Amino acid sequence: MYIPSAVGGTPNTDYGSRLFVYEVEGLRQNEETDKMGYPIRRSGSVFITVPYSRMNQEMQRITRMGGKIVGIRPYDGTSVSNGKTSSGTESQQVQSSEETKPMTQAKEKKHVDVPVNIYRPSNPFIGKCISNDELVDEGGVGTVRHLIFDISEGDLRYVEGQSIGIIPEGTDDKGKPHKLRLYSIASTRHGDYVDDKTVSLCVRQLEYKHPETGETVYGVCSTFLKNLNPGNPVKITGPVGKEMLLPPDEDSRVIMMATGTGIAPFRAYLWRMFKDRERGVNPEYQFKGFAWLIFGIPTTPNILYKGELEELQAKYPDNFRLTYAISREQQNAEGGRMYIQHRVAEHADEIWNLVKDEKTHVYICGLKGMEDGIDEAMSAAAAKEGVTWKDYQRSIKERWHVETY
To answer: How far apart are CA 346 and CA 332, in angstroms?
Structure first.
């Protein structure tokens, strides 16, 4: 975990006088820890309150003692205690070199049973196409398909935010079988029919001009998927991926930024959060937090899953916010096309305030080009409080999730 350096900091600003809480694992017993009075635990974490002006020194000190900083958050006045308070083990109070602050540790749910690589390329699962529907309305740009595959005959399991591999039929120009392509899963773990028997994808047919001949070239796997008919077999591998997993806490704040088919994992999130049938089969997960989707598309007909999204927004106005960036129809503040980074810039102060909350997770999925604009907008918002965005972003990497291409 990278911790923002205090070198060159501004201790006389409001930010410079603030306190931060380090979550530290692995502090070992030695002469130095004995001298400083740090609590030592055989397992779990200790929490150390640190003034901004001493963040760099404290990071070096913890490293010398064999500790690993696994989390950092602004101190909010609450308390964090370490130890088993309910079993008779004495709760420990954590002390920094500057001052002592009593704290209580919030309960955090962990991801459990995340399946990975149940099926590999050498032995893929043979699924079956159930349906293959167009998602782009008339007048839109390109073609995007929503595909549902039957996986009832195997042991393919997955959770929201993972991907599966597809091996297209046929061979390449060297006569070898095509390699797999990965696609984000667009359904919840229970599938579109909520019966644990399907998996869904959202796939745009890749199309581009050959740089030398000018000939239109179509993507091998995306074209294979576009042309699948109900009943056709499909080779599936995976699932893979743990970077984009939805936080398990029902009161999380989830900010999603997507372009095009980057909507796929977010559709899965939103179904799990809000769909009645999903909530009915997930008694252990009843979302009551806040979700915000900022969705970039070229035209209104290209708003994928438009009916589903707007139905959820209407039904859960206090829990789900939907913001479009329609590049060919809307203008940004400078009069140019409205891209997702411009929407983020419009709401940057609000997003920044949300991001400072440890319950907030941000997910970015889609075209890689949007990342720089998003970072620029967040940098401007953070700078108003004297914070260097890139440093802060590194310190919250467990809550800032990116999957771009």
So the answer is: 9
The two three-digit tokens of residue 36, written as one number: 């400083």
**Active centre residues (catalytic):** 183-184, 365, 403, 405
CA distances from residue 77 to 1, 80, 92 in whole angstroms, order as listed: 23, 10, 18
pLDDT digits (tens, 9 = 90+) for 284-326: 999 999 999 999 999 999 999 999 999 999 999 999 999 999 9
Q: Token digits for 213?
A: 């001949």
Cα(405)–Cα(203) distance, integer angstroms? 14
CATH number of the structural domain 253-404: 3.40.50.80
Domain ranges of the chain: 1-106, 125-240, 253-404
How many residues appear in the chain? 405
Average pLDDT over residues 77-88: 38
Q: Given the DSSP bridges, would you call strands 198-204 and 45-51 parallel, antiparallel or unpaired? A: unpaired
SS3 71: strand
pLDDT at 184: 97
The CATH fold of domain 1-106? Dna Ligase; domain 1 (3.30.1490)
Options 3.90.550.10, 1.10.3130.10, 2.40.30.10, 1.10.3720.10; which CATH number does 125-240 get? 2.40.30.10
The pTM of this model reads 0.72
Residue type, 148: I
3-class SS letters over 346-383: HCHHHHHHHHCCCCEEEEEEECCCHHHHHHHHHHHHHH
Contact of 188 with 278, CB cutoff 8 Å: yes
